[in-house]
Design brief:
CATH class: Mainly Beta
CATH topology: Porin
Strand content: over 45%
Structural class: mainly beta
Mean pLDDT: 91
Number of strands: 21
Order of helices and strands: HHHEEEEEEEEHEEEHHEEEHEHEEEEEE
Low-confidence stretches: 1-21
Strand order of the largest sheet: 1-3-4-5-6-9-10-13-14-17-18-19-20-21
Distance between the termini: 20 Å
Number of helices: 8
C-alpha cells in the first residue's frame, strides 16, 4: 500500500505543471491508448479512463485493470503586434494519470483514478508601449500564465441488462491559476475624487483629452503578478452504455459544470511606469503652457500638483494584496459509437458539445488588503480592487474519430483525427490564453508482453492555428489587431496491467 501511495504522490506532482489546451482547456485523451485513436472513448469500452468519459462503459471492460500513463507536452506559442514578433519560451510539461477498474464480471463495477483534465499557459518576454527607459528604449516585460486542472475520484457502473448499463462518477477537482503581465484597467476604476464640488475623479483626469486638462489615456496599466491561487470543486458525470454484441457499442455521457473559487493567492501590483508616464505628460503640459519654464521647475510644479491631489510621490505606487478569482469549468454532453468490422479492426466516432460560454464568460478578480496610500487614493477604495477580466468564450463542438488494427496477437496500431471549433473570440484573444488549436492528428501502438501486461505509446500533433484580435480588444490596447498562435506536440506512454 505504501508503494501505491508513493505513486499517487508522484502523479499529483506531475499534474501541477503548465498545461496547454487541446480543445479549449481540455485534453483530447487522458492516456496513450485513447490518444492514439484520436481521443475516441465515449463508445469504446476498453480502459479505466471511462471514469472521466463515460462511467457506464466500465461495465463492459473485460478485466480488472490498472493503468499508469505519463505524457510530455511540447507546445509552441506565438504573438505579433506592432512592436512584437515573438515565439514564446520553449517548455516541456510532464503530466500523468493513474486509474483502476475492478470487479467487472458482476452487475456492479467500480473504478477510481486521478487524471489530468487540462489547462493552458504561456511564457513571453514582450515590449509594451508603457514600459520604456529614460532613453525611450523598450524594457521587455515578462508575460506568464498558468491554468492547471486535475480531477480525482471514483465511479460506479451497473448493468441493467446484459447489454445496457448506467454509470455515475464523482470527482474532486483541483485547480491552480497564475498570472504575471502588464494588466490594463479601465480609467473608470480610478474613482478617487479630486474635486468634491464637481465630483471630478482621477479616472476623469486620466481619461480626459489634453486640451480639456486631462492626460488622454484610454486605459491605465499596472504590472501584475498573481500567484498561488488554488481552488477545489466537485464534478459529477452520468453515463449510459449499450453493447448488444462484440461488434457494436454506443455511449452517452453528461458532465456537470464545476464552480471554482480560487483563494489564498497573493498579488503584487506596480503602477510605477504608468505614474511616471503620467508625470511626464503633466511636466510637458506645464512647459507648453508656461514658455520659459525649465524642466526642473516644471517637475517641481508637477510634484506640487500631485501633492495637492493627495499623492505623495515619495511613497511610490507598489502594493501587495490577498487575491481571489472566480471562474468555472464547463458542462458537456458527448455521444460515441464503436464498430468492429472484423476481429482485428475497430473504428470509432465521438461528438461532444462543450458549454464554454457560461463557464468562461469573465474571470472575476478580487484583490484585498492593499496598504499603499497613493493607489488607494487614486482608486478611491480602502485597499480593494475588483474587476471582471473579459473572456467571453463561445460554445464548441468537438469531433473525434479513430481506428485500431491488431497486426498480431502482441502488436497493435492506432490512428486518429480530432477537430474542435475554437472557443476564443477575436474580442478577447491574447497570447497568455492561446486555447485556439482546431485540428489534431494522432498515431500510436501497443505491445503486449503477455496476457496481463501491455505498453501503449502515442504521438499527438495539434496544427498551428493563428487568430487575429479585433481593432478594439476587450483585454487591452496592446492586443488591438494582434495575432496569437499555438501549436502543440504531446508524447504519451501508458502501462496497462490486467489483474485477471
Amino acid at each position: 500500500m505504501r508503494k501505491l501511495h508513493v505513486v499517487f504522490v508522484i502523479i499529483t506532482i506531475l499534474f501541477t505543471g503548465n498545461l496547454h489546451a487541446q480543445n479549449g482547456t481540455r485534453l483530447i485523451g487522458y492516456d496513450a491508448l485513447t490518444a492514439g485513436r484520436g481521443g475516441v472513448v465515449t463508445g469504446f469500452f476498453d480502459n479505466p479512463s471511462l471514469i472521466m468519459n463515460n462511467p457506464a462503459g466500465l461495465s463492459f471492460v473485460k478485466s480488472s485493470q490498472i493503468d499508469l500513463s505519463i505524457s510530455v507536452m511540447a507546445p509552441s506559442v506565438y504573438f505579433k503586434n506592432d512592436i512584437n514578433n515573438n515565439t514564446g519560451k520553449k517548455n516541456l510539461f510532464p503530466l500523468g494519470c493513474l486509474s483502476y477498474v475492478g470487479n467487472p464480471s458482476k452487475k456492479l463495477t467500480y473504478g477510481f483514478g486521478i487524471f489530468t483534465q487540462g489547462g493552458m499557459g504561456a511564457d513571453f518576454d514582450l515590449n509594451h508601449e508603457m514600459y520604456k527607459d529614460q532613453a525611450g528604449n523598450y524594457v521587455k516585460q515578462p508575460y506568464h500564465s498558468k491554468f492547471a486542472v486535475m480531477q480525482g475520484g471514483g465511479a460506479l457502473a451497473y448493468k441493467i441488462t446484459d447489454h445496457f448499463s448506467a454509470g455515475i462518477a464523482a470527482n474532486l477537482v483541483y485547480g491552480q491559476v497564475e498570472f504575471k503581465m502588464p494588466m490594463s484597467m479601465p480609467t473608470s476604476m480610478m474613482k478617487g475624487v479630486i474635486n468634491p464640488q464637481t465630483g471630478f475623479t482621477f479616472g476623469d483626469m486620466f481619461a480626459a483629452a489634453p486640451e480639456n486638462g486631462g492626460l488622454g489615456y484610454s486605459e491605465v496599466v499596472a504590472s501584475a503578478n498573481m500567484q498561488s491561487l488554488t481552488a477545489f470543486g466537485f464534478n459529477g458525470k452520468i453515463g449510459l452504455a449499450y453493447k448488444p454484441n462484440e461488434k457494436f457499442s454506443a455511449g452517452i455521457n453528461y458532465s456537470l459544470p464545476v464552480n471554482l473559487k480560487y483563494k489564498n493567492g497573493k498579488a503584487d501590483m506596480d503602477m510605477t511606469y504608468q505614474l511616471n508616464n503620467a508625470f511626464g505628460k503633466v511636466v510637458a503640459g506645464i512647459i507648453q503652457q508656461n514658455p520659459g519654464t525649465t524642466p526642473e521647475q516644471a517637475q517641481q510644479m508637477a510634484m506640487n500638483m500631485f501633492s495637492q491631489m493627495g499623492i505623495d510621490l515619495t511613497k511610490g505606487v507598489t502594493d501587495e494584496y490577498n487575491a481571489e478569482a472566480t471562474f468555472g469549468l464547463p458542462q458537456s454532453i458527448s455521444a460515441g459509437i464503436a464498430f468492429a468490422p472484423s476481429k482485428k479492426i475497430r473504428i470509432g466516432l465521438d461528438a461532444e458539445w462543450i458549454n464554454w460560454k457560461k463557464a468562461f464568460n469573465t474571470m472575476d478578480i478580487k484583490l484585498a488588503d492593499g496598504s499603499n496610500a497613493n493607489i488607494n487614493r487614486m482608486l478611491g477604495t480602502p485597499g480593494t480592487i475588483e474587476m471582471a477580466f473579459p473572456m467571453y468564450w463561445e460554445n464548441t463542438v468537438v469531433i473525434r474519430t479513430g481506428a485500431e488494427f491488431d497486426a498480431t496477437d502482441k502488436l497493435g496500431f492506432r490512428a486518429g483525427y480530432a477537430y474542435g471549433s475554437n472557443p476564443v473570440p477575436e474580442t478577447t484573444i491574447f497570447p497568455l490564453f492561446p486555447a485556439i488549436v482546431k485540428h489534431h492528428v494522432t498515431a500510436g501502438g501497443s505491445f503486449r508482453f503477455n496476457k496481463s501486461l501491455s505498453v501503449n505509446i502515442a504521438y499527438e500533433y495539434a496544427f498551428r492555428n493563428n487568430k487575429t484580435a479585433v481593432a478594439n480588444s476587450y483585454v487591452a490596447n496592446e492586443y488591438n489587431n494582434s495575432t496569437s498562435g499555438l501549436k502543440n506536440s504531446i508524447f504519451h506512454a501508458s502501462l496497462s496491467w490486467l489483474l485477471k
